[in-house]
From TrEMBL:
Keyword Transmembrane (UniProt): no
Keywords from the UniProt entry: Heme, Iron, Metal-binding, Monooxygenase, Oxidoreductase
Listed Pfam families: p450
Identification of the protein by name: Cytochrome P450
Entry keyword rRNA processing: no
Entries under PROSITE patterns matching the protein: CYTOCHROME_P450
Cofactor(s) the protein needs: heme
Entry similarity comment: Belongs to the cytochrome P450 family.
UniProt superkingdom: Bacteria
Coiled-coil zones: none
Length: 462
């Protein structure tokens, strides 16, 4: 499958990367480096880092780009987005799906939306959603049977979707899971295909089969979300009180007393849904696959869950009491960061690492590439949650781990996703070990890093 990569990737070189060597990779006329990027963007970023240095010029069609691979440059870029860098335009499909939500908005519009959305996902609010996370995970565990063979990704996707629908839209929207799921799957595929192909450079009015499928998927999402919004408005008019994310968004007011518009509610609902469902389902899928191949790490997880929980269901307060469980999640996000690339466009006078960046240049950094650099993570492809022990012998440099981005535009749903992943691991991990045997999926870089094939496992007693 294009872009897919197996469990064991080519090792990165042990040499340091002092800077650009030879002006970056060779470019094709008109296409630039698009063919290599489209073939396998993850390998392409690693090759830029290993073969050309930490500051590498390259091009995506006619667009001038630079890839930066030093953690301090990544941190500076993430902290500077808004000024003197602005978010990149990532294509027609990306805009169709996310609209002008907080992820892509800029300037005063972005500041207003962030102020309206952020309170809905603060730790105090995430605490109120923890019970739903645990309840849904426990229901799934109750349906599983010892010795059964399951599609891990499908199971995790179904679970996190139920959690997302209930916490975002409320329990009465549960029947709308199937059309939302199917539409999101189509949108994810088409977004990934456009981003790595020539369609990225076509004007919005050009129609292609992929764009037709994208429009149809987005139309389904729009219809389903509009239906749920109307239900919430009717319930509110009748005096009903609700405690889901959409209700918080409906009640939010900006500094002038203005609410989110209908279109803004749609855009932010899609953004939060992706953060609560797509990101966490893939993280959990990778975590089970990694744990299956790491018996010592799995044994330590079992010991912690037995010691802290003793067979009971976890609560939000247990999140702080499960350090190894959190480290399993953190190490999974290092190896398989859901956000695998980040880019921003330089404005006039922009600098990075003390270097002038010409206006209009897209500066990219890749969590996938930085997270797999042996300078920051010895034996980078090995699954070692102990890297994150408080007394680890080699501390991880600042900004070397950024699976949710960083700076002012860091993912607002990061706390939600981290708590959800840890609590689901705790619920399911007490009762089952997911044994993948020798099977091992590779990755497909779409909107998030997805498995390139079904991840199957046999349910065992831990």
């Amino acid at each position: 499958m294009p872009g897919g990569r197996g469990c064991h990737h080519a090792c990165v070189t042990a040499t340091l990367h002092p800077g650009t060597r030879g002006g970056g990779p060779r470019r094709w006329p008109l296409l630039g480096n698009l063919p290599a990027f489209a073939r396998d963007p993850l390998a392409f970023f690693e090759s830029l880092r290993d073969d050309h240095g930490d500051w590498v010029p390259w091009s995506l069609g006619p667009r001038r780009n630079v890839l930066v691979s030093l953690p301090e440059h990544a941190g500076e870029l993430l902290g500077a987005v808004e000024s003197p860098f602005v978010p990149s335009e990532l294509g027609w499909a990306f805009r169709q799906l996310l609209g002008n939500g907080v992820v892509v908005a800029t300037g005063d519009d972005w500041r207003r939306k962030r102020a309206l959305v952020q309170p809905a996902v603060r730790p105090r609010q995430v605490r109120s959603y923890a019970a739903t996370m645990v309840e849904c995970a426990d229901a799934l565990a109750g349906r599983w049977r010892e010795g059964a063979r399951v599609d891990v990704h499908a199971e995790m996707a179904g679970l996190t979707q139920r959690i997302a629908v209930r916490t975002l839209f409320g329990s009465d929207a549960a029947g709308r899971e199937a059309p939302i799921s199917a539409a999101m799957a189509t949108a994810q595929r088409e977004l990934g295909a456009e981003f790595r192909g020539l369609t990225l450079f076509l004007p919005p009015w050009v129609r292609t089969p992929g764009r037709r499928r994208m429009r149809e998927a987005v139309a389904v999402l729009d219809r389903e979300i509009e239906h749920v919004v109307r239900e919430h408005e009717a319930a509110s008019a009748a005096g009903a009180e609700r405690d889901d994310l959409l209700s918080r968004l409906l009640a939010a007011r900006d500094e002038h007393g203005g609410p989110l518009s209908r279109r803004e509610l749609r855009d932010e609902s899609i953004t939060l849904y992706i953060g609560g469902h797509e990101t966490t389902s893939t993280t959990l899928t990778w975590a089970w696959q990694l744990l299956s191949g790491a018996p010592q790490a799995r044994a330590r997880l079992t010991q912690e869950l037995d010691r802290v929980l003793g067979g009971r269901l976890p609560t939000y307060d247990d999140y702080a009491l499960l350090p190894w469980t959190r480290q399993v999640v953190k190490e999974t996000l290092r190896i398989y960061p859901p956000i695998w690339l980040i880019s921003a466009v330089a404005t006039e006078g922009a600098t990075l690492g003390g270097r002038q960046v010409p206006a209009g240049t897209s500066v990219w950094t890749s969590p996938w590439s930085v997270h797999r650099d042996r300078r920051w993570f010895p034996d980078p492809e090995a699954f070692r949650p102990e890297r994150w022990d408080d007394d680890a012998p080699q501390p991880v440099p600042e900004h070397a781990w950024f699976p949710f981005g960083g700076g002012p535009r860091a993912c607002l749903g990061a706390r939600f996703a981290l708590v959800e992943a840890a609590l689901v691991l705790a619920v399911l991990g007490q009762r089952f070990h997911l044994d993948s045997g020798s099977e091992c999926a590779g990755v497909f870089p779409g909107l998030t890093l997805q498995p390139d094939r079904p991840v199957r496992a046999t349910l065992r007693t831990p």
